């Protein structure tokens, strides 16, 4: 098991097959999927397939979403991380910053803390030149997180018939330099 980032309270590590129950709890929650196309998963097998796909991204691209684990309880909080994205914005590929937490962990600053750690990791350790992210225009919490960690809102775009905000940050503009 590879641990990529460690904070005072969280381990950010590769997703593993044994994370399937936590991933199922996360992705079967309709509230979690409210701004993600309203397509929650229905079976643990779907969670296992998601983890397998992410693990394939590790092999193919060297990056992918990582599990957030609470250090004191060993609980699966959700996921965060960078991934090479080719589908969301047709016409160009980019490094996407994302996060998704189980509902019981919302509103505690975890997404902000871990997303910021991933931004640092991407620029400092991986040498990525630009990191981008997208958030549904009505997902106020996610838009706030992206702004708070320094990504700049540059435009809006349509995805699956819904309006989304597009954020990006160049390494040369990053305040962490």
Structure in words:
The protein is an alpha+beta fold and 177 residues long. Helix 1 (20-27) crosses helix 2. The protein is 29% helix and 32% strand. The protein has helices at residues 20-27, 44-61, 110-125, 140-148; strands spanning 3-6, 10-14, 65-70, 76-85, 94-101, 130-136, 152-159, 162-170. A five-stranded antiparallel beta sheet has the order 1-2-3-4-5, with helices on both faces. The chain has a three-stranded antiparallel beta sheet with strand order 6-8-7. It starts with a strand and ends in a 7-residue tail after the last strand. The model has no long low-confidence stretch (mean pLDDT 93). Strand 4 (76-85) and strand 5 form a beta hairpin. One of its GO terms (molecular function) is acyltransferase activity, transferring groups other than amino-acyl groups. Keywords: Transferase. Residues 10-172 form the N-acetyltransferase domain. It comes from Arenibacter aquaticus.
Gross morphology: globular
Question: In which range does the helix fraction lie?
Answer: 25-40%
With strands numbered from the N-terminus, the spatial order across the biggest sheet is 1-2-3-4-5
Please provide the count of β strands.
Answer: 8
Uncertain segments are none
